[in-house]
Design brief:
The protein is built from 14 helices and no strands. The chain is mainly α. It has one domain. Helix 6 packs across helix 8.
């Protein structure tokens, strides 16, 4: 889509390895090495995470067609979520924990959905669409890795990614629940076994003369790397996985907004400025105003409510406006 090198770096595991590995090593080394690397990591968060929310809002609310076609997610959903978010702040131990848990559990599923869409897109561009069985087999390692990441979240001792994650884990641990150590090993074994399905699809398509495009493997390996490394490296799971997911998203949505337009570079520059400014208004703007960086009392609950609202609405919007069943989306992606 973007060219071999760009696809490998932005949509595949390139950024994960070339940016993530040095940042992890710098964190472990500490001292001067981490003093240099930490601002880079913070910069990546602001350049990727906020704009990835902004790209969704820009597409959803600057098109009357999108609003008309999807009124439930563009109009009804944010109003309903605001009501629930207010209830979560009023009753944090009941409505709140349930609301926050939906966001926490859905987050990895949302990442998997993006990976599935990208993985299916390349055979579609190849002119050899995946059939339903092939789709199910390619989804297996993505969904298994997502479930494994959830187990790791509750099993390993690490700082929470957000206020919502912190409150959900507190509720879980205060209930006296525990995840046995062997479950991580069983999950990793299940993840390895799930790739047998990918191998079967690859073999069958190769025999038919339409082998899986290499970027499909790249997308699968990127998410599996995120969620398996994140089991053992808190910094990776907490901070870097959202960055790499957002980097994929911003790359894809930027290409969609500007591809085939006569004013290419100028249009991309305008698009980049818009989503960057709007993204910074969301993160750190809105999150900071809600006390995202405070972990005490009502401030924590307010932070969790705002983050859950923004993310759940983002998940709902993405699930509708970027579907490959959307004619306008497919036409632009395969052109």
């Amino acid at each position: 889509m973007l060219g071999p090198a760009a696809d490998a770096f932005l949509l595949g595991p390139g950024a994960t390895l070339l940016l993530g590995l040095p940042l992890l090593l710098s964190k472990r080394a500490g001292g001067a090495s981490w003093a240099v690397a930490e601002p880079i990591m913070v910069g990546l968060i602001f350049l990727c995470v906020g704009p990835h929310y902004a790209a969704t809002y820009r597409r959803a609310y600057t098109s009357t067609d999108v609003i008309r076609d999807h009124p439930w997610v563009t109009i009804a959903a944010p109003l309903a979520l605001l009501v629930v978010a207010a209830g979560a702040m009023l009753r944090p131990t009941t409505i709140g924990v349930a609301f926050f848990a939906v966001y926490v559990c859905w987050s990895g599923y949302h990442y998997s959905g993006q990976s599935i869409g990208l993985a299916m897109l390349y055979p579609l561009r190849q002119g050899a669409r995946l059939d339903p069985r092939e789709k199910r087999l390619l989804k297996l390692p993505l969904y298994v890795s997502w479930i494994l990441s959830l187990i790791g979240f509750f099993r390993l001792s690490m700082p929470a990614r957000s206020a919502a994650h912190e409150l959900v884990r507190r509720a879980y641990t205060s209930a006296g629940a525990s995840v046995p150590t062997w479950l991580i090993g069983a999950g990793l074994a299940a993840l390895a076994a799930s790739f047998l399905g990918v191998a079967r699809v690859a073999r069958e398509r190769r025999l038919r003369g339409t082998p899986l495009p290499w970027p499909t493997y790249a997308v699968l390996s990127a998410q599996v790397t995120w969620f398996t490394v994140g089991l053992f490296e808190p910094l990776f799971a907490i901070t870097l996985v959202p960055v790499f997911h957002s980097l994929q998203y911003v790359a894809l949505t930027s290409w969609h907004a500007c591809h085939g337009q006569p004013a290419g570079p100028k249009l991309f520059a305008r698009y980049a400025v818009v989503i960057l400014l709007l993204g910074l208004a969301i993160n750190p703007g809105v999150f900071l105003l809600a006390g995202h960086y405070g972990l005490a009392g009502d401030t924590l609950v307010a932070s969790a409510a705002i983050m859950s609202f923004v993310n759940l609405h983002h998940f709902l919007l993405d699930g509708r406006i970027w579907r490959l069943r959307e004619r306008r989306v497919v036409q632009s992606m395969v052109a």
